[in-house]
Structures are given as C-alpha cells and as structure tokens.
Amino acid sequence: MYRVSGFLALTLGLAAPAAAADRQSKHYTIEQLMGADSIGGMSWSPDDSKLIFTSNRTGIANIYVMPSSGGPATALTSSVKETVSAIGYFPNDERILFSSDQGGNELAHIYVRELDGTTKDTTPGAKHVARFVGWVEDGKSFFVQTNERDPRYFDLYEIQADGYAKTRLFENDKAYQVRAVSPDRRYVALSRIVDNATKHCYVYDRTEAKLIQLTPEGKPVACEPQTFAPEGATLFYTTDDGGEFTYLARQDLATRTVAPVFKAKWDVQGAAFSRDGKTLIVSVNEDARGRPYLLDAKSFAPLAFANPMPGASVGLQLAHGKPLALLRASNGSMPGDVFLLDLKTGKRKLLLSAQAPGIAASDLVAGEVVRFASYDGQQVPGILYMPKGAKKGDKRPAVIHVHGGPGDESAIGYRPLVQYLVNNGYVVFEINNRGSSGSGRTFYHLDDHKHGDADLDDVVAAKKMLAATGMVDPAKVVIQGQSYGGYMVLAGLAFRPEEFAAGVDLYGVANWPRLLANTPSWWEDLRRLLFTEVGDPDKDAEYLRKISPVFHAEQIKRPLLVLQGQNDPRVLPVESEDIVAKVKANGVPVEYVVFPDEGHGFRKKANQITAYRAIKTFLDTHVKGGPVATTPAGSPSAHDVSSIGDFPIGK
Predict the structure, then answer these.
(1) What is the rounded CA–CA span in Å between residue 459 and residue 453?
(2) Does an H or E element contain 256, and which?
(3) Closest CA to 284 of 346, 226, 332, 354
(4) How far apart are CA 462 and CA 275, in angstroms?
(5) What is the rounded CA–CA span in Å between residue 232 and residue 380?
(6) Bond preceding residue 225 cis, omega within 30 of 0
(7) How many CA atoms are closer than 13 Å to the CA of 344, on its beta-carbon side?
(8) Global pTM?
(9) DSSP string, 577-617
(10) CA within 20 to 30 Å of 529's CA: 176, 265, 392, 618, which one?
(11) What are φ and ψ of residue 325, in 5° steps?
(12) What are the pLDDT digits (tens) for 6-61?
C-alpha cells in the first residue's frame, strides 16, 4: 500500500502577500466551507473496474464505491456514529477491509465488509488496538498487529482470507513496531524508538529465530522499514544515516550489503512497489508538499514522470494492471480532488471533486511557504494565508497556529478552519517552529529540552514578521494550536503573558508530569521518545513542573478558549479542566467546549462546525474589535461552555 505524507512549497519573500490585494473574496459560512468532501482510503478493485474511498460527505466518514472510469458513487457503509476508514479491497475479490474505533478512543479494530454487505470484526476483543500491516503476495491472507496479549506490545498475526483464522507469527517483547513482512514470511521488518534521535531498524528471521539489527549501535540515526522486494530477501528502508534528510536505501539480508536507492534534497517519507512489481513509488516531502516519484523496480532508474500538479500536495496510487493511476491533490484552495491519470499520455480526468457546493476556488487562499529570521537568526518556515484584498496599512488581526507533535509539520493542504478565518479577514500563519520535522535533523533537535521556551520564542518572532508585512496589527496576534500546539498556546499565555492578544487551545498539554505518567499503554515506544525529548518524570520532575503552564496559570491574563474531546486517551480531559479552572480564578475571560463523543482530534463534521464557529466567535469578541484587558470573572465577556450535549452530533 502506497503511503504519502508531507508536502512541497516554494520559498517566498515576505513581499509576496501583496498579491492578496488584487480582489475581495465572497464571504462564506462555516457550514458552506465544511461542505467540502474529505476523501481518503482509495483502493482499486482487483480488476481495476471500480474504486472505493472514504468520504465524510454525510457528516460521518463512510465507504463509497464508484466506477474507475467515473460516475456516481454509492455508499457501502452507513455508520451514523463511528468513523469508518477504508483499508482496501481484498486482492482476489470485492470484500473490503476497514478500520473503526469507538468515539475516538483509538481502540481501532480491523473489520471485513462481506460481499453481502454484512460486517465481521477480524480482531475481536476489548481494550486492544489492531493495525493493518499488509497483504500476503497471493492475497490469501493478510497481516495485522495487535496488543491483545500485552497492552504494551504489538504482536504480528496472519489472518486467513478464507474463514479469518488467526495465527501469531511474531511475539513482541520490546515495543517494536511491525512495518513489513517478506513475501515468504521468513523476515519481519521492525523499527524501535531508542530515543528522540535514534530509531533502529531490525529484521526478525523466523527460520533462525534470530533478531538482526540493521542500523549501527551508538550512532544517532532515524531508520524506518518501508517494504520488501517482491522477490528475494531485500529490505527497503528510509534512513538519515550520514545526512540531514532521510533517503531510501536497500539491504540484501543474505549478504548484508547496503546500497542507496533514491536521494532527494528533502525527506523521502515512503516507498512501495506496484502490484505487478515493476514500479517503485517513492514519496518525498519537498518543503511542505508531497511529491511522488516513479522508479524502475529493477534498475531503480527514474521513470519519466513530471510533477503532475506542482502547486499542490500530491498522492498517487497505481492501478493493478493498466497504465493508470489515482491522483489526489490538495492545497488551501483545493480540498483534495481525485483525478484519473493516464501514465502514458499524462492526461488526467477529474473523478471526484472535493470542493464544497457553491464555493469558488478563487475565493480561497492556497497558502504560501515563507521563511523568516527568528530571534537568533535561525531561518524558520511556515505557511502564510493572507486574505484576499489585504493591503498594507490594514492592521488586520492574525492567528499563529502551532502544529502538534512536538515534531510534526504543518503542510500545504485544505483546512476549513484556516479558510474560515482567512475568509473573515484574519491573517493565518502556520508556523513550523524549531523542532518541527521536514527541515532536517539539526532543525528537528533545536528544541530538545527547551520546550515552551526556544520554540515558543519562534512564535513570538513570527508575530514581528507578520507586523513587518504592514498588514497585521501586532496588538491583535493570537496563538492557536492543537495537542502539543495547544501546550504552546498555554505556554505562550503563561510564560510570555504580554505577547499575544488571546489563545485558542485545542486539547493541549497543561501538566507534563501528569501527561507523561498517564500515556496510553500502547505508547511504550513513544514514551521513550517523549522522555528523551521533553523530559523524564522521574529524573526531570522539577524541570517538567517548570515548563507546565498549569503550575504558572496565575500569570495568564489574556482571554483563553479551550476545546477538548471527552474520550481523549492522550491528553486527558483533566488537563483542560485544570487550566480552565485556574485561569477563571484569575478573573480572565475563559471559554471551555467539551465534545462527549470525540477523542484526540475532532472527526465528526457537526462537532468540527461547532468548534470552528466557537473559535471565530471567540476571536471576533476578544480580538477583532481590539485587544481585551482582563475582566472580572462573571462579567458578560467571561463565559463557560462546559458541554455541547445540546448540539447536533455527527461528522
């Protein structure tokens, strides 16, 4: 299965946003913007005549089928409560594998939609997580990993396509992540996080009952298995050994010889072979946009394949037996349209438009990658969205959005909240502060043990960059973020209390000692990463308390909006409840929105609409009309929404 992650963007000077002055855009409601379709999980049928995909067009993600040549789509699932995510067709018939959890609790299982429309859980049981790994070459069985035996570790199982009998192939004892299985089932490719600088690659030889470490010991290197060769015993993996960015390499497991396969100026993020084994598809994160490359599977020579849509992030999935591909493209003005691409002629045909009805793409803002010199001269990238019609002297309000992670990356793509804010006059800057991925190994580690400080000061510096455009009022700059970005919001208000006009915290960390002591059981490997990047609660207790906003909440004096999923297994609701209570005690305007049927992130469309409308209303009230001084608790501007139980629920 082909995976694409990350995106490409052009580095622009700060003068570029002046082009926004060309025209005003029509104003849209959040309901209109949320009418855009979110399409994923695309899969060709065994004979290439049909396509399935996941869509949230009804408010809840379900699976649809359509002719691969184009035509109407028909719903195959009809969930009205839980999100359904397509994995793909069975290789030899039209049964379908899909994944689903319960209310965002992340306890996903792997299900089959049978030919008669009924469903079966192939990974039954309570309180465990199941993840799809891949298909056996003959299509008669597939591999999954689950933590049903031990909640800390994921074992590898093979499930038969006929009858769904399950056999354990590999018992995990050190929080390895299973990434691939060789065609003959002899080798299991694994990765394991050692610390935030090192991820080792391994293969487990089932014939010899021996674990083989492929990466050098004692040397920081990030390695991730991708796929095995269709024949023989060769593993393909990405690694940054010897450089700033990851590249694709291969290792012959019989001779242990290693050879590079594909290098780019940016991170190679994924690789997979076509079903016929003739083509190797490589995904590269080119400066915040994804770009696919095609290589000959034998010689690894690049095949003639121009970037089909340079202005967008592109994902590609090849047909099984025809020179065709599915192409999905997205940027801020294109929500993720799906095209049928003829690989011989280069011609493409629109199969699925994700654009919301009645929304003109010309009224939306695609987003531009810009770089600025931060407080110490370090170049920091981000994606700038400037409203249509913006001009120097406007003094507009602005939102600086911080991604999750800590080490994630904001990328070019369609996000309804961003377009909603920009369409209503806000400048939005999605910062990829130091510590973000996508800009090389050195940049990624610049925030180690400096969280809520070195990275936060990049956000403060971004405020000055926005003001320098002449279009932003520095007194009306808001900090916003989700997950780790939510932590940055709270840190910004607590540790830089005069810098931001307000904060919007989506399920952010308030108390690091508590969060690190209560990570999900299946986070055994990620716990090591967090302990070495952020801090160890046993060894670094004093430091973690120092950087936790909940212990410094008395310093928060600017309005705060907090949004939280009640079923979040990562950032527990108590994180938000505590900070809300403490900020309210300061006499500061604070609003709290809780979604009882969501987890870490809001997936149901009705909940997203409620959340995004609440954000805009909060910003209009406390920022757009002018900076707000702290007001006594109980005043008309200090209100609390403790639940959304009275709102319609859906996705």
Answers:
(1) 10
(2) none
(3) 226
(4) 46
(5) 44
(6) no
(7) 4
(8) 0.88
(9) HHHHHHHHHTT--EEEEEETT-BSB--SHHHHHHHHHHHHH
(10) 265
(11) -150, 150
(12) 222 222 233 334 444 456 779 999 999 999 999 999 999 999 999 999 999 888 89
